[in-house]
Design brief:
heterodimer, A: 315 residues, mainly alpha, 13 helices, 77% helix, 0% strand, globular, B: 302 residues, MetI-like fold, elongated
């Protein structure tokens, strides 16, 4: 049963994945002027500095002299095999750049996701259980501040406090150089916003569940408060929270772009921004494609998780 | 808690039974402002908007006059928030920055609203393959994180104001169209729509004059929630150098400049950051308030 559903869901995500690929392909062709010039990382002023033969060679290589549909199919076939072309700016294969950057971003996302889930759910529960009391006000205050703090600014403030004023953590550097210490501040910076969103959802969902009769029954049965909240409350309140968590990927990736850049973490976000600064269209295409595909897959994962937690749901 | 005040269905209180739109609006907004938190967020929002509008009169210095001799001076007199490395007054630039952020936010949300709601209304009302195509497109555009999409677009189209607005609105268009489609679907099977058909009205007239006005609640809620969101994305873009370009002040751009001097002149990025934070608090609280007010049962819309 589960495999059939999984298979159906996988097939359903194919058009979306194709669409994301098309979007990434179109990005390269939207640039005003000659895509060959753009692919070489030059703008229109750089046009005159390029030898006509060189330009012709690049056009040939990119297949720009073929009809656009042929170009698209060719590009897609190569992309499916993990070949995103060779960057004209750095003369390194884009796939190599992307796969080198991927582990850092994945690690960062997994860490921020875990932190924001733990913090968010705990805050939300505290808020709901102590509704209208001090604990609730503090938790809600943290949540509203968390939602309103710009991630990149928070990253700078954290850096100023814990890397410059009190030098506990490195100002910048990769996981390879400093290990977990390099990830601590970036994780905190990115996790704040999703944690606050999760806490808000958890609070309202938990409040609704706690007003149900079954909670009264469970309490009347003589169960401990802990058991009532954690087993009966949480289990029934978690579904909408999972949906919110699922939506956090885009949020996290968005945060990761700026934060990786601030802390010079060599991840996908930094790659994308460097690609943008260098006007390296192929790198931009590759990064957008990988991020889009990862997002589609994370949606799939959330749906599956949903089914495991709540067997009534069948997609 | 006094949750009952939220769930009450507003009933016409006068005897005539007929209420003009304005009087309903006035009553609704009075009720909205009864809550202390709403009063606070509304006041803060208004304060920021007034600051932005009056920037040319309040700002003690022009935002772009470079005076290296006064560079990096700490907050004090006459530079209330200090100066940046070029000697430009931070306070004045923060005020003009409010103008930039608020106007881009407003235009983007309006553009996203008009385009997204039209798309969503068509999608929901027409149905069939049109619905399928539009919703697939929306799903594809939603698959790329907003900031990544915006960065890629601006880098390719160039960082001009129209391309920034376009890049920022793409995600809002998808969000608005989803919400509008959902509301239209729930409204379109009601009797009064059938009655409109029977009266021989055109589809366009039914959608825009009769269906959409009845879907306005969730759309207003989404718009108020998204305003803060757009301002945040714009400042992130500017922070990364892909948004508003110098010398036009933007909070994100100012924070980025200050980043270089963070250790010995933190005021350059702390003040614009603080204002950005205040704006976000104001808009988030306002958005929450509007949501609770118009849709007491609803959860999160984004």
């Amino acid at each position: 049963m589960l495999t059939t559903v999984l298979l159906r869901r996988l097939i359903f995500s194919i058009p979306t994945l194709l669409g994301v690929a098309t979007l990434a392909f179109m990005l390269g062709h939207m640039s005003p002027g000659d895509p060959a010039i753009a692919a070489m990382g030059l703008d229109l002023e750089g046009y005159s500095s390029v030898e006509p033969e060189e330009l012709e060679r690049v056009r040939e290589e990119l297949g720009l002299n073929k009809p656009i549909l042929v170009q698209y199919v060719g590009w897609l076939t190569r992309a499916l095999q993990g070949d995103f072309g060779t960057s004209y700016v750095s003369t390194i294969e884009v796939s190599e750049l992307v796969f080198e950057a991927l582990p850092t971003t994945m690690l960062l996302l997994v860490m921020t996701m875990s932190v924001s889930i733990v913090v968010g759910i705990s805050l939300g529960i505290v808020s709901a259980v102590f509704k209208g009391r001090t604990g609730d006000y503090i938790a809600r205050m943290i949540a509203i501040i968390g939602v309103s703090t710009p991630t990149f600014w928070f990253a700078l403030v954290l850096m100023l406090c814990f890397a410059v004023a009190i030098p506990i953590f490195p100002v910048n550097g990769s996981f390879d150089e400093f290990g977990w210490k390099a990830m601590a501040l970036p994780t905190m910076a990115i996790a704040l916003h999703p944690a606050a969103l999760i806490a808000r959802m958890m609070r309202s969902s938990m409040l609704e569940v706690l007003s149900h009769d079954m909670i009264r029954t469970a309490t009347a049965k003589g169960l401990s408060r802990w058991r009532v909240y954690m087993v009966h409350g949480l289990r029934n309140a978690i579904n909408p929270v999972i949906t919110v968590i699922g939506f956090q990927f885009a949020n996290l990736m968005g945060g990761a772009v700026a934060v990786e850049f601030i802390f010079s973490l060599p991840g996908l976000g930094s790659l994308l921004i460097e690609g943008i600064y260098e006007k390296d269209i192929l790198v931009i295409q590759g990064a957008v494609l990988v991020i889009g595909v990862a997002f589609a897959l994370s949606n799939l994962l959330v749906d599956l998780l949903y089914m495991i937690i709540d067997p009534r749901i069948r997609i | 808690m006094t949750d009952t005040t939220h769930t009450q269905i507003p009933m016409p209180s006068d005897d005539s039974g007929y209420r003009s739109g304005w009087s309903l609006f006035a009553e609704s907004s009075n009720k909205f402002l009864e809550l202390k938190l709403n009063k606070f967020s509304f006041g803060l929002t208004m304060f920021l908007i007034v600051l932005a509008i009056l920037a040319p009169w309040i700002a003690p210095f022009p935002y772009d006059v470079v005076d290296p001799a006064r560079g990096l001076s700490a907050p004090g007199w006459p530079h209330l928030m200090g100066t940046d490395q070029a000697g430009r007054d931070i306070f004045s630039r923060v005020l003009y920055g409010a103008q930039t952020s608020l106007s881009i936010g407003l235009v983007t949300v309006l553009f996203g609203l008009v385009t997204g709601v039209s798309l969503g209304a068509i999608s929901g009302y027409v149905g069939g393959w049109v619905d399928e195509v539009i919703m697939r497109l929306v799903e594809i555009f939603m698959s790329v994180p907003g900031i990544v999409m915006a960065l890629a677009l601006v880098s390719i189209l160039g960082p001009s104001v129209p391309s920034i607005i376009l890049a920022l609105s793409i995600r809002r268009i998808t969000q608005f169209s989803r919400v509008a489609r959902g509301s239209v679907l729930s409204v379109k099977s009601q009797d009064y729509v059938t009655a409109c058909h029977a009266l021989g009205m055109s589809n366009a007239r039914i959608v825009f004059a009769h269906v959409l006005p009845n879907c306005i609640g969730p759309i207003i809620v989404l718009a108020s929630v998204l305003l803060g969101n757009v301002i945040l994305t714009e400042s992130t873009l500017s922070f990364l150098g892909m948004g508003i370009q110098e010398p036009t002040p933007s909070w994100g751009g100012m924070i980025a400049k200050g980043n270089e001097f963070l250790t010995f002149a933190p005021w350059i990025s702390l003040f614009p950051g603080g204002f950005l934070f205040l704006t976000m608090i104001a808009f988030n609280l306002l958005g929450d308030g509007v949501r609770d007010h118009l849709d007491p049962r609803g959860g999160s819309v984004v």
